[in-house]
């Protein structure tokens, strides 16, 4: 499997599954823990294999086809040559990177964090998500997640023994929206935390200030924790990104997750982080130390430098991705899809029903054979696959020439 995205075509909603009572011997029980029953082969692996087999353009997986800034890559080479980070770096991350992350949160969002106590460097956002959920969720706790959801959420909630409670974003007027009443109704006395993702993969929704204020109020009212995945914070084309940690009462109850992968087009480096209050960081660090202990020494030095890039870098990234979004969105519209033009991220969700199809999984399996393009079915991001059945997702973090070729091929539909 090439990227962190690892959706499966089946999933488990809770800790109920496991070996039959009394099945103690290896021969009598499945090898995979019951907590992950249903989390089998990934749709991304399947679709990427199809792309390789058919020579199709792979717009399934979310990784750029160009590498991040040369100065940042050179910084990693320098670190390796200079012997910085070649041995275990400090558990919480190197001080240079923790200071740079705290500086980023302060200069962009006005959020004060002590680099020594409020920042933890992780092996990508993926480890941050896993460590946060394993640290904060007890078996039986309910975790509200925005659906469709990034696939590792479901797996990590299941590993923690939590119960996933989806709140579904629904398409309306060309975009996906959160229904705050549904969110309110999903809260019970077993709810432990709300797992947010904004900008949101796969719908491209960017939660607005009012929505975040309302979520924050609910979290405070019901004394809930919030874990917020903000890895696409710099990929916003419409509106603005607001970290929920900045809303009243949220500072002490929010774990904010960031990553260098998406912002600097370096998804293979796996440098992520959390920022939170010291007690929350301590809890997450306690788990993280037993998952990877530390990670990516030299890359940490390079990402510390990346975080000092001038504003022009981010503006250029946004402008270039916005142009590519429009290129692919227009191509998909011309090909007959209903397009939900994303306000953020580098994914476009489409509806295949205008093309006379309604089963996204079957459609994606056929697409490379029909016209040489690979996408992924959104059904795998839902508890109730029916809800996501007619939607499929394309990634546009690819070169304009490749996107143009993909659009031309899709017009054959
Ligand atoms: C919403 C979301 N969170 C987290 C990740 C993983 O980030 P990382 O590569 O830093 O582990 C991804 C990657 O696709 C993502 O889409």
TrEMBL record:
Its cofactor is pyridoxal 5'-phosphate. It is found in: Cytoplasm. One of its GO terms (biological process) is amino acid biosynthetic process. Pathway: Amino-acid biosynthesis; L-lysine biosynthesis via DAP pathway; LL-2,6-diaminopimelate from (S)-tetrahydrodipicolinate (succinylase route): step 2/3. Residues 1-23 have a biased composition (Low complexity). Homodimer. This is Probable N-succinyldiaminopimelate aminotransferase DapC. The lineage of its organism: Bacteria, Bacillati, Actinomycetota, Actinomycetes, Kitasatosporales.
């Amino acid at each position: 499997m090439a990227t962190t995205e690892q959706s499966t075509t089946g999933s488990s909603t809770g800790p109920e599954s496991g070996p039959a009572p009394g099945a103690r011997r290896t021969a009598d029980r499945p090898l995979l823990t019951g907590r992950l029953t249903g989390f089998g082969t990934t749709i991304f692996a399947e679709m990427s294999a199809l792309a390789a087999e058919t020579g199709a353009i792979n717009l399934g997986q979310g990784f750029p086809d160009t590498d991040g800034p040369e100065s940042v890559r050179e910084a990693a080479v320098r670190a390796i040559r200079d012997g910085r980070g070649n041995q275990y770096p400090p558990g919480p991350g190197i001080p240079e990177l923790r200071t740079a992350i705290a500086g980023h949160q302060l200069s962009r969002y006005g959020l004060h964090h002590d680099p020594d106590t409020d920042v933890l460097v992780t092996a990508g956002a993926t480890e941050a998500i896993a460590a946060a959920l394993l640290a904060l969720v007890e078996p039986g706790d309910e975790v509200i997640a925005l659906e469709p959801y990034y696939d590792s959420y479901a797996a990590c909630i299941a590993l923690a023994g939590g119960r996933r409670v989806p709140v579904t974003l629904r398409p309306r007027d060309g975009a996906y929206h959160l229904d705050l009443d549904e969110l309110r109704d999903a809260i019970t006395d077993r709810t432990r935390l709300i797992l947010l993702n904004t900008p949101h993969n796969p719908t491209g929704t960017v939660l607005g200030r009012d929505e975040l204020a309302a979520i924050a109020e609910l979290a405070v009212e019901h004394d809930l924790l919030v874990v917020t995945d903000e890895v696409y914070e710099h990929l916003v084309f419409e509106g603005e990104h607001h970290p929920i940690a900045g809303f009243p009462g949220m500072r002490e109850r929010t774990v904010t997750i960031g990553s260098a992968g998406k912002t600097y087009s370096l998804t293979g480096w796996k440098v992520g982080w959390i920022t939170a209050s010291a007690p929350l960081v301590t809890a997450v660090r306690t788990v993280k130390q037993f998952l990877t202990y530390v990670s990516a020494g030299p890359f940490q030095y390079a990402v510390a430098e990346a975080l000092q890039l001038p504003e022009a870098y981010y503006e250029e990234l946004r402008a270039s991705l916005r142009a590519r979004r429009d290129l692919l969105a227009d191509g998909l519209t011309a090909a007959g899809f209903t397009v939900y033009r994303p306000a953020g991220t580098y994914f476009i969700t489409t509806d295949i029903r205008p093309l006379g199809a309604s089963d996204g999984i079957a459609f994606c399996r056929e697409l490379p054979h029909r016209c040489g393009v690979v996408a992924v079915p959104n059904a795998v991001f839902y508890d109730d696959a029916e809800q996501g059945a007619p939607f499929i997702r394309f990634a546009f973090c690819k070169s304009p020439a490749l996107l143009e070729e993909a659009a031309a091929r899709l017009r054959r539909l």
